[in-house]
Structure formats: structure tokens, C-alpha cells
Design brief:
With 470 residues, the protein is α/β, with parallel strands linked by helices. It has helices at residues 5-12, 56-61, 90-104, 118-129, 147-153, 173-181, 196-199, 202-215, 229-232, 287-301, 306-315, 343-354, 376-389, 402-411, 425-432, 453-469; strands at residues 3-4, 15-16, 25-26, 28-30, 40-43, 66-69, 84-86, 108-113, 135-137, 161-165, 185-188, 221-225, 241-246, 253-260, 266-272, 275-281, 324-327, 332-337, 361-366, 394-397, 419-421, 440-445.
């Protein structure tokens, strides 16, 4: 989608240093000097760990036709031959450009937020909607004040549906993103204790997530999770269009009659109104049924028949790093849940691991859960108690709160000899080797900052080396 320079100025309120006598047409919007294309506007964003102003000259050398900045730098004199636009805050301006483009789009926008499951629901919803519509989506985890505008600006003008994921780790972020995206449908997956350093309490999280409902346009349909007590506390206006989903009988779109299929996943009955279909979901964890029902509610609302919803869900293979089963060997399966962690998600992962207690040695390799504020130790102790409560066989711990998890587990009766702490690959593998060639299930989970995926790679490398040596 092309832009006239004056359209950018009108959308952002920018002040130009120079205007060309001839109209300047921009071919796109970019915040990355490494991937900028000829004719793009370069937006110099500034964050805690980067400063786009340092790369203005590089962006121009690569073909930028204009720059948008929030402060002048003497180096800009070397690129004075192209228009330079100045605003108080380039991040705000970037959002305004995306909001202006959103108003051009004919596509219906579906926005998804929540404490857990939003990426999986987004991917499932995209798969379902793609059965009928040309559908765009948030790529990877680009769900913040940079990612949401980037998603919208990347949508083709002929798209019919757009599934936008929204995340937040500071108060007010969901409200800002909602006003940029102006969604036609708004779904909150659930509300759980996450990012408590900033939100302070579960109520603070609920207030933040509920901004998706309260800042969305009046016509937008709101999707309420009937299984989530906190989500049900969100005040709803009478004039809003409301859709309900969950495993409860009062939900309009329901997932019931769940049956575990072991490593093959979970089957359930999906119903909406008078329609019913049986779905065999291949991703592990009964909680993924709730994700599937949430995505199905979107599909039903957008006119997708239940049999097509079933087909999309049964073809869904999951999201990397979210309870991703990796068959490391004939006997050993790794549950790679290394992408991130919070107390509720940790408990769900432990429950999923424990469902294999009868047939496999269950091993939990757990790292810290970050951004939990003053309650961090208590939450980690509860993780240890959950491991004892669900009968996990072996517990490996790493990170600053390893001792807190260990204390919680011991206090709940976990055998001390079956708990080990590790800081490097050697320590980890020394404890795991006796189990790698027995029927075993290894859960790897912790916050992103701990890079828990390295332990997945270590196990895979160990098994590959042993098999190669044989």
C-alpha cells in the first residue's frame, strides 16, 4: 500500500524540515533499517535497548525515501536531500499510521488477548477462518505496540479477515492497541496472575485485559470465557453483542465429553446451537480444548460451518515451544514448553505431564517464572507443591527460585532424593541419563529469559550422540 507524504503528516501531526516541490509517494513503512525497501518511510523507534536514530543514514543508503524521527541529530544533515518528519514520540506516531491504514482496510479485524493461550487461539482462529476467507494474522509473537502496528500495516488490501494478537506487560497497553486496531470482534482467553510487577494483583490484570472490551468500537462482538471466573467479572454493557464459549453448559459454543488419546491428543464434542461435531485435537493438554473452543466461537460467529471448524482443528499441529511434543528417541518424549511461564500455565503443564504418570517416568525440568513481584517466592513454592500433588516422578530445577520450588515440593511430601538442581548441561545430563532410554516424558518449562530451550537441545544432542555411537 502506497502513501503520500502528506498522508503521513496528517496521520501523525509531524513537522517536516523540508517538503519536495513534487508529491512524494512512499511504498511502505519500515522500522528496521536492515530490511527496508526502496521508497519506504523509515520510522526511527527508540526503546530501552535500541535507538533507531542511529540507523537513519543506513536506512537512507538502503533506499528510504523519507524518515520519521523524534529528535534531530547532526548526522541527519547528511541525508537532508530527503524529507525528514519530526514528532514527539515515534512509537505513538507509528501507531497512528497503522490506525490510519486500519481505516482503509475492508477486512474485519478479530482481536485476541488474555493471560494464556492467546497465540494458540490466534493460530487456531486463523486456520478456521482461512477455510472461507482470505485471512491475515499476527506473525510469531508480535503482539505489542510495535508488533500490532506492524501486523496491520502488513495486511493486504484484499484481505477479508485479520486475526490480531494483543499482549501487555504495562498498564494501558491493551487500550492503546485496541484503539489502533479498532476490532470488529474481541476475545479474552482468560485472566491469570502474570506481569504482577507492573499490575500488582489479579484485579490489575483483569482491568488491563478488559480494556479490549471497553475500548473496542460499540459494534464489536465480545467473546466471554464462561470457564474463567475472572473473565466473568468484567462488566458488560447491555447494548454490546456478547458471545459465550467454554466447557460450561451455559456457554453457547461448548467443548464437552473430553477423552484423552494419550500422545495423540484429546478428543471432544464441539457444539454450537443445534450443531455437534466430534473433534480429535492432536495437541497435548486438555486445556487446549478450551483454546480450540475459543477459536471455534470466532469461527461460528464469522459463519464457518462446524464441519469445517473440525477439519481446521484436526489439522492444527500446535505452536512451537508451547507443550510441543518432541519424540527425542523411541522411548523419550520431550514436552517443549520453553517459550514462557506463569503460575497458571505452569500448573496446566504439570497436569499434562502427570497424565502420563502411569505409562512413563515423568520428569519436570523447571525454571523461574519472571515478573511476579513480591509474591514470586510464594508462587514458586506452589509450583513445587503442584509437582508433589500430581505425583511427578523426578524434578529438576534451575534459576534463582529453584530453592523455593524445592522447598514447596519437600513441604508437600516430594522425595528429596528425586529433586536435583542444575546450572549447566553436564549437571543436567548426569541426572537424566538413567531415564533417557526408558519410557519417559520430560517437561521443559520456564520464562523466556531463562532460555530453557537450551536444555531441550542438550537432551536431543545427548540422544543423537548415543545413537550415533551405537
Amino acid at each position: 500500500m502506497t502513501w503520500e507524504l502528506m498522508e503521513i503528516i496528517e496521520a501523525t501531526g509531524a513537522t517536516p524540515t523540508v517538503l519536495s516541490k513534487r508529491p512524494v509517494t512512499l511504498k511502505g513503512i519500515s522500522t528496521d533499517s536492515r530490511t527496508i525497501r526502496q521508497g519506504d518511510l523509515f520510522v526511527a523507534l527508540e526503546g530501552e535497548r535500541f535507538d533507531g536514530h542511529q540507523f537513519v543514514q543506513e536506512a537512507v543508503e538502503r533506499g528510504a525515501a523519507a524518515i520519521l524521527a523524534q529528535r534531530w541529530d547532526p548526522l541527519f544533515g547528511e541525508v537532508a536531500h530527503i524529507p525528514q518528519l519530526f514528532v514527539p514520540d515515534t512509537l505513538v506516531a507509528y501507531g497512528r499510521i497503522a490506525a490510519a491504514y486500519r481505516r482503509r482496510l475492508k477486512a474485519r479485524v478479530i482481536a485476541i488477548t488474555g493471560s494464556m493461550g492467546k497465540t494458540t487461539v490466534k493460530e487456531m482462529a486463523h486456520a478456521i477462518l482461512s477455510k472461507k476467507y482470505k485471512t491475515a494474522k499476527t506473525e510469531k509473537n508480535e503482539n505489542n505496540r510495535v508488533g500490532v502496528p506492524k501486523t496491520l500495516l502488513g495486511v493486504s488490501p484484499d484481505a477479508e479477515r485479520v486475526v490480531v494478537e494483543m499482549g501487555s506487560n504495562i498498564p494501558g497497553e491493551i487500550g492503546v492497541l485496541t484503539e489502533i486496531a479498532r476490532p470488529d470482534a474481541a476475545l479474552i482467553t482468560n485472566i491469570a496472575p502474570v506481569h504482577l510487577e507492573r499490575f500488582h494483583s489479579l484485579e490489575g490484570v483483569r482491568i488491563e485485559k478488559s480494556a479490549l472490551f471497553w475500548r473496542a468500537p460499540a459494534h464489536a462482538r465480545r467473546f466471554v470465557n464462561q470457564d474463567d471466573a475472572e473473565a466473568r467479572k468484567i462488566p458488560l454493557r447491555l447494548e454490546w453483542s456478547i458471545e459465550t464459549f467454554g466447557t460450561e453448559s451455559q456457554a453457547r459454543v461448548q467443548g464437552t465429553e473430553m477423552v484423552s488419546m494419550g500422545l495423540k491428543g484429546t478428543s471432544f464434542t464441539l457444539s454450537a446451537g443445534e450443531g455437534r461435531v466430534r473433534v480429535a485435537l492432536s495437541v497435548l493438554g486438555a486445556h487446549h480444548v478450551r483454546n480450540a473452543v475459543a477459536a471455534s466461537a470466532i469461527g461460528v460467529s464469522e459463519g464457518i460451518p462446524l464441519d469445517q471448524i473440525r477439519d481446521a482443528l484436526e489439522a492444527f499441529q500446535g505452536v512451537a515451544g508451547r507443550l510441543e511434543p518432541i519424540h527425542a528417541s523411541q522411548d523419550c518424549v520431550i514436552l517443549n514448553d520453553s517459550y514462557n511461564a506463569n503460575p497458571a500455565a505452569m500448573t496446566l503443564a504439570i497436569q499434562t505431564l502427570a497424565s502420563f504418570n502411569a505409562t512413563r517416568v515423568t520428569i519436570a525440568l523447571l525454571g523461574d517464572m519472571r515478573e511476579l513481584g513480591e509474591k514470586a517466592r510464594a508462587f514458586h513454592e506452589e509450583v513445587g507443591r503442584a509437582c508433589a500433588r500430581y505425583g511427578i516422578h523426578l524434578l529438576g530445577l534451575t534459576g534463582d527460585y529453584a530453592e523455593a520450588v524445592r522447598a514447596g515440593a519437600l513441604g508437600a511430601g516430594f522425595d528429596a532424593e528425586k529433586i536435583f538442581l542444575f546450572e549447566d548441561e553436564g549437571q543436567l545430563l548426569r541426572h537424566l541419563r538413567p531415564f533417557l532410554h526408558r519410557p519417559s516424558m520430560i517437561l521443559v518449562k520456564g520464562s523466556f529469559a531463562l532460555h530453557m530451550d537450551r536444555w531441550v537441545r542438550a537432551i536431543l544432542s545427548e540422544l543423537k550422540t548415543k545413537e550415533g555411537g551405537a
